Amino acid sequence: MTIVAISGPESAGKTTLAKELESIGYIYRHWGPIAHDSVYLDALIEDSHPDKKCVWDRSWCCECVYGNLLPNSTDPARNSPRGMSRLRHDPWLGEWLYGRAVNKMALLGPNIEHLRNTRDETDLPCDPADEQDAYDNYGSAHGWKVIHNIHNDRHATQTIVNGIERDMRERQRLQNLFRPVQDPSIANAAPVEEGIPRWWLSGVGNPNGTVLIVADKPSSNGGSQSGQHLPLTSFMTTKLARSLGRLAFEPIWTNASALTQMSVANVIDLIAQVNVIICLGDNSQDFFSKLFAEKLFADRRKPVIGLIHPSALYRWGVYENQRKTTEEMFKHAVISGIDQYLTYRVVEAQRHYPWQQDDVFNPEYSPWFGEMPMMLKTS
Predict the structure, then answer these.
(1) Residues 6 or more apart from 317 whose CB is under 8 A from it?
(2) How confident is the model at residue 224 (pLDDT cuts 50, 70, 90)?
(3) What is the mean pLDDT of residues 121-137?
(4) pTM for the whole structure
(5) Do 336 and 304 form a contact (C-beta atoms < 8 A)?
(6) Which three-class secondary structure string do you get for the chain?
(7) How do residues 316-327 score in pLDDT, each as one tens digit?
(8) For a tag on the chain, would you pick the N or C end, based on fewer CB atoms within 10 A?
(9) Is the predicted pLDDT of residue 367 greater than 90, yes or no?
């Protein structure tokens, strides 16, 4: 099925809640000190298998929280102080590499007094108030569900469990959309590869996202950065996603190679969910151009915005002067899919400016928010 990660201060009730989930069939995994955040990746691949439901007691966000609260502390698992973790000053990267495939909860204590009174010598040596604030701030800033736990209240615990179960079903729904089925009605069907990413991680992000971002295919070079596995986690694609900031965690992210493996019914359901489709590179644009030309999809078209693939955008000098503009267009396109009014403006703009691909960066086309990308016909 997927994973729910529960992180929070010492004595907030994380383990109690995790054990409650274990009692109804979840696999329990406790995270202690780690040498590097990339160790989460193998567990992510294994635990997010569709036949499993897993609960993680602590997660990558602890690298940021304790890296800042206890920067000089060390433990047997580390070759360097906690403050040397790359996620200490870059929590966005942890969310990008691991968080898009996981349901996340920051579980806080009922109050600071309770956290102080229940601590013992096995707990980390940081002030409970600072620790609670750190998790609260992290969760609020990165889209985690932030919950103040009420200890010894069975009804409150059951309410939290019910919410987790509901969110897990939504995550499973998205996961199952990407289940591969060889179907000749989808163009360019290719054999399912044993590699990166596993099919159950080939579509990630917000399960209820209204923006679909589609690149080409997974990187075949073994990964250009540590922790790479989920869609668009190569160095170049990560760079473009980073330009969105927190907005990067609102869309659904995938590759055209994954869409070609899906059943027609699942492609229809995915398209129906979103307001805007953003294609990075020619292959993803070609996929939707051919798809919407088919009779079956004639009444299911959505605005499709085409942009240069980040691998070309950041690698080749010919695009150097277009990088900032492309990042701005990308951000506005994502916003357009979240805001229905902006989506309407995208479609209206297209009716008056029939762009061609060669016009992508032509300064004379500036109907909306500056230079607009090529958009495939939607009518």
Answers:
(1) none
(2) low
(3) 93
(4) 0.85
(5) no
(6) CEEEEEECCCCCCHHHHHHHHHCCCCEEEECCCCCCCCHHHHHHHHHCCCCCEEEEECCCHHHHHHHHHCCCCCCCCCCCCHHHCCCCCCHHHHHHHCHHHEEEEEEECCCHHHHHHCCCCCCCCCCHHHHHHHHHHHHHHCCCEEEECCCCCHHHHHHHHHHHHHHHHHHHHHHHHCCCCCCCCCCCCCCCCCCCCCHHHCCEECCCCCEEEEECCCCCCCCCCCCCCCCCCCHHHHHHHHCCHHHHHCCEEEEHHHHCCCCHHHHHHHHHHCCEEEEECHHHHHHHHHHHHCHHHCCCCCCEEEECCHHHHHHCHHHHHHHHHHHHHHHHHHHHHHCHHHHHHHHHHHHHCCCCHHHCCCCCCCCCCCCCCEEECCC
(7) 888 899 999 999
(8) C
(9) no
Domains of the chain: 2-172 (3.40.50.300), 183-376 (3.40.470)
Which residue has 């990165």 as its token pair? 142
